[in-house]
Amino acid sequence: MSSADALLARSLAAVWHPCTQMKQHETLPLVPIMRGEGPWLIDADGRRLLDGVSSWWVNLFGHCNPRINAAIKAQLDTLEHAMLAGFTHEPVVALSERLAALTGQRLGHAFYASDGASATEIALKMSVHYWRNRGEPGKTRFLSLAGGYHGETVGALAVTDVAIFRDAYAPLVRAGSTVPTPDARTAGAGETAADVARRAAAALEAELAAHHAEIAAFIVEPLVQGAAGMVMYDPEYLRLARALCERYRVHLIADEIAVGCGRSGRFFAWEHVADTAQGAGDAAGWPDFICLSKGISGGYLPLSLVLTTDEVYRAFYDDSSSRAFLHSHSYTGNPLACRAALATLDIFAEDEVLEANRVRARLLGDALQARFGAHPAVRHLRQTGMIAAFDVAAAPAGFARRFFAAGLAHGVLLRPIGDTVYFMPPYVVGEAEIAHLVAGAAAALDDALD
Fold first, then answer.
1. Is 116 exposed, middle or buried (0-12, 13-18, 19+ CB in 10 A)?
2. Cα dihedral angle (297, 156, 187, 365), rounded to 10 degrees?
3. Residue 87: is it exposed, middle or buried by C-beta count within 10 angstroms (0-12/13-18/19+)?
């Protein structure tokens, strides 16, 4: 037995893999990854796979990035971890300050955890506790978009509307309510994406008007609903939602776990909505909470956080411990993860990444349009910044697994969501890598439909 075969056997015996029916690996073998180089993953046979999904949307600047590596190594010689309850350290303070500055100090307080679902739970709990501290304990319900995904812990499932995740654990979940998605694909004859957004916002207004006294917060993935199949919509919806939440005194939570850190073309997707010319202390136009994870550490270490406003923070500032925010994680604000995040922010600034990504996004969009724009099986080719997707008409049973396996055979890592093929490559792909990614996707599509 080769060393790679031995590794696969050991993994199947000992590791329970996430979001996976393990029996499927009887026919679809695990891929033993030995190392990474920039946008490439290299398996045990030396096969190079272009990481077209950034390893579940986390890797921004390539695998084994030398600058992030150096930052983590330097931090290892100083402090690996210390509890954040009663203590503090330079990496967590510096990261909090820099993220607050990126919001123009509008969301100047950062609370840390380890993963996206935990960030969702923090924002939900913080909202409900805020209203209780303000003397409105009846505001305990949550509102989200149809098809929304915000994590798979019990609390996060309350606002996750993806049946395969939600239904299996329904007896454990205190389910919230949903309102229609502003999915631009649902536009009728003569309608624009902005028209769909206004129609969906009218449904949101009706729900808030009827139930605002019970609703603590409305949570939304700005511009792109990821797990729903890369549902994209017009920012007009978010502008209207912000105004409605303000009018009806409901918190607005922007879940930027997937779409933040430059994916949309701005660092925060909400920047497509907010008037960044407002005064630095003015929080109007911004959400009450922003959740970040995934790309914030460059894809290196588990890290998530919630940014919020002075108003929310002040509601907890009191002599009474019962009015404090009662939530904690053992690895909150881990120095190594924070240092990776600081190195990630350095790269954004030093390399003018957002400007460079406009070129990458155009190259990706042009290549996809040339290859798939007239493909008979492709519907709704769409793009928001460094996220692109299309739907496959009349896809056969098991399409996602078939496409994934075919993609590996053609040197690309792509994992469709149902019948939706999407692309979220690292920000280090050049024209040659984009050409390889699109050619591999086209070959995989032909194989999967054969």
1. buried
2. 20
3. exposed
List, in sequence order, every residue forming a beta bridge with 307; answer none if it has no partner. Answer: 110, 290
The residues, ordered by sequence, that sit 6+ positions from 285 with a Cβ below 8 Å of its Cβ are 242, 273, 274, 275, 278
pTM above 0.90, yes or no: yes
Nearest CA to 413 out of 426, 397, 430, 431 is that of: 426
Closest CA to 256 of 238, 243, 240: 238
Q: Is 3.90.1150.10 the CATH classification of the domain at 31-64+352-449?
A: yes
Structural contact between residues 424 and 294, judged by C-beta atoms closer than 8 angstroms: no
What is the C-alpha to C-alpha distance for residues 383 and 359, in angstroms, rounded to an integer? 14
What Å distances lie between residue 195 and 66, 184, 200, CA to CA? Answer: 46, 9, 9
The Cα-based distances of 215 to 15, 144, 411 in angstroms read 40, 11, 48
Closest by CA to 442, choosing from 360, 362, 367, is 367
Sign, CA torsion 41/42/43/48: positive
Instruction: Encode pLDDT of 173-222 as tens digits.
Output: 998 999 999 999 999 999 999 999 999 999 999 999 999 999 999 999 99
Is 70-350 assigned to CATH 3.40.50.720? no
* Token pair of 350 as six digits: 């030093």
Q: For residue 372, which of 443, 424, 432 has the smallest C-alpha distance? A: 443
Sequence spans of domains, the chain:
31-64+352-449, 70-350
Are β-strands 48-51 and 40-43 bridged in parallel, bridged antiparallel, or unpaired?
Answer: antiparallel
Whats the size of the chain, residue-wise?
A: 450
Place of tokens 């890592």: 413
Task: Calculate the average pLDDT of the chain.
Answer: 96
Tokens 């949903």 identify what position? 178
Counting Cα atoms < 13 Å in the Cβ hemisphere of 101 gives 8
pLDDT at res. 4: 86
CA–CA distance, 337 with 75 (Å, rounded to integer): 10
User: What is residue 278's predicted lDDT score, i.e. its pLDDT?
Assistant: 46
- d(Cα 4, Cα 42) in Å, to the nearest integer? 12
Number of C-beta neighbours around residue 329 at 10 A:
17
